[in-house]
Task: inverse folding
């Protein structure tokens, strides 16, 4: 079921031109000359309920612009956007009640006060019923692990704890759609894991649609089921995350093996083999033969393998290739 | 929700309990010296164009009271407008399902100003005891009405300086003028030449904050009567509404432009 629909979205910024030169600086003071910067050229995509979408692209590609328009804080130049059957920038309040925007580098918490005070403020702002508030507060605090921190002021929390408190604060009103902007930035490995697990849990329990912008590829890999790639204001790819690698012909696997009998010279017909210390590195295309197929092939040929490792095509390489185009 | 936000701010400030008390003490000391200065001047000149010591004191305190009440709510949020815009922090307020203006204002209540409000109010009330006034219910009501109007006028100027930060990024200049130039009304404006009086009544209407209401209260016959009081209330409400709409116009323009 479609929950977000974006059609032919276009956004052009009018930026005052700053001209070089002494005289021109004065001219700029009196009358600005403007130039048009196209942030979004012609974007279309749709997102289904319950999707966890990785919305990625290089810096300046137009990600924040799209998110802001979907959230209702920015007006598009042309095109249609529907979120939950509501046009976000036209019915701001109605839209705001169903969504949540969490940015990794900005906190919604009151600095000096215990975090429970911020939660109660959210309760009032979103007019959450007492029952639902208590329910959500307990559930979310439990899952994300800040149950014992309610009376601690935000300034005394570590970054990881603050992020978690931010998550709770932003989800108390049961938003149907959550926009995450770099949610794991600056967090340690364990904290990142907790956040990712939290997102997956909420998504599976409440069918919350999540749109996540992150430069951490592991974030995308671990929790997203779909990926939309944007660059220079245009959508470059939109589809399942599994297909992304093959779509970009990134199919190369590398299997390193160690043979029991080292004296043997090792050669495999049709495959590129390199010797690295006492291991052999075999490159092969996943399309041609799967890793398990490769193992079977080696065993059939009678090779005694005492150690091996496998490197699958990495999403990071694919994305790097996309960004570099 | 609005009052809850205000309360949260006060609560946060009170967390630093001791420094809050120090703030109040230092304001009080500042006040005492100011009133001492007034007392000395009046002692020298016996009275200022017929105004006795307590009458001037009342004028003074009332000015503080009106100005501080408006500032407590509006000064800090408007001062932070250009900061918010530059740091992209305005989004959080625009994103909430509540009135963004109220949210920003409520989140930035300036507890410090309360000390001025309380002190100003107290001094004003104490001075009243020393001034012979013909009290009637109507008089009191109209007086309060004009005070409310005056708060909206001063507040309107504050919001105006916050609103223009949507067009020019640095707007603190106007705010500074407001906070520092207003002390001209500490004395009855009739001590100034006619030109300045007109300036202070119609163009930079600070005199509406304390002079006219005071004259109405106990300096009759003067250039203030019951109609003036109502006029001040009306002017305040309509001016504020205009500036409020201007602020929202700025918000919508900001939402079109983005960064």
Result:
């Amino acid at each position: 079921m479609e929950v977000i629909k974006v059609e032919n979205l276009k956004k052009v910024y009018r930026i005052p031109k700053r001209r070089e030169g002494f005289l021109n600086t004065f001219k700029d003071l009196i009358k600005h000359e403007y130039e048009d910067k196209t942030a979004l050229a012609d974007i279309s995509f749709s997102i289904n309920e319950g999707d966890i979408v990785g919305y990625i692209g290089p810096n300046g590609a137009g990600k924040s612009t799209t998110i802001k328009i979907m959230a209702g804080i920015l007006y598009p130049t042309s095109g249609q956007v529907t979120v939950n059957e509501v046009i976000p920038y036209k019915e701001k309040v109605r839209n705001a009640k169903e969504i949540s925007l969490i940015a990794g580098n900005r906190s919604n918490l009151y600095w000096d006060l215990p975090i429970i005070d911020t939660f109660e403020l959210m309760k009032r702002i979103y007019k959450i019923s007492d029952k639902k508030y208590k329910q959500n507060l307990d559930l979310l605090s439990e899952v994300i692990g800040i149950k014992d921190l309610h009376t601690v002021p935000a300034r005394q929390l570590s970054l990881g704890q603050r992020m978690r408190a931010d998550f709770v604060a932003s989800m108390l009103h049961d938003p149907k759609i959550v926009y995450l902007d770099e949610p794991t930035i600056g967090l340690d490995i364990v904290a990142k894991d907790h956040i990712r697990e939290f997102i997956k849990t909420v998504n599976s329990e409440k069918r919350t649609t999540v749109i996540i912008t992150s430069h951490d590829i592991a974030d995308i890999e671990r929790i997203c089921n779909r990926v939309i790639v944007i660059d220079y204001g245009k959508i470059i790819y939109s589809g399942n995350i599994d297909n992304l690698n093959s779509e970009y012909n990134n199919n190369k696997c590398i299997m390193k093996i160690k043979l029991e009998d080292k004296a043997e010279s090792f050669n495999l017909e049709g495959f590129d083999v390199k010797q690295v210390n006492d291991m052999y590195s075999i490159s092969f295309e996943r399309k041609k033969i799967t890793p398990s197929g490769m193992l079977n092939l080696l065993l059939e040929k009678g090779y005694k393998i005492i150690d091996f490792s496998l490197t699958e095509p990495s999403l990071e390489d694919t994305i790097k290739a996309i960004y570099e185009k | 929700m609005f009052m809850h936000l205000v309360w949260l701010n006060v609560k946060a400030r009170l967390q630093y309990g001791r420094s809050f008390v120090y703030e109040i003490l230092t304001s009080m000391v500042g006040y005492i010296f100011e009133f001492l200065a007034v007392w000395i001047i009046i002692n020298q000149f016996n009275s200022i164009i017929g105004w006795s010591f307590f009458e001037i004191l009342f004028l003074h305190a009332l000015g503080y009271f009106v100005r501080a009440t408006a500032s407590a709510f509006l000064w800090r949020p408007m001062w932070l407008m250009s900061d918010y815009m530059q740091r992209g922090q305005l989004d959080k307020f625009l994103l909430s399902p509540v009135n963004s203006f109220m949210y920003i204002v409520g989140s930035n209540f300036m507890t410090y100003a309360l000390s001025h409000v309380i002190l100003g109010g107290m001094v004003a009330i104490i001075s009243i005891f020393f001034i012979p006034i013909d009290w009637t219910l109507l008089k009191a009501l109209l007086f309060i009405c004009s005070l409310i109007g005056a708060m909206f006028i001063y507040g309107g100027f504050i919001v105006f300086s916050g609103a223009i930060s949507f067009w020019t990024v640095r707007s603190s200049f106007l705010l500074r003028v407001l906070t520092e130039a207003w002390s001209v009304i500490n004395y009855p404006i009739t001590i100034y030449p006619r030109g300045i009086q007109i300036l202070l009544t119609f163009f930079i209407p600070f005199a509406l904050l304390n002079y006219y209401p005071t004259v109405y209260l106990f300096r009759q016959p003067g250039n203030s009567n019951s109609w003036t009081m109502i006029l001040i209330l009306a002017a305040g409400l309509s001016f504020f509404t205009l500036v409020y709409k201007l602020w929202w116009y700025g918000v919508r323009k900001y939402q079109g432009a983005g960064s």
Chain B has eleven helices and no strands.
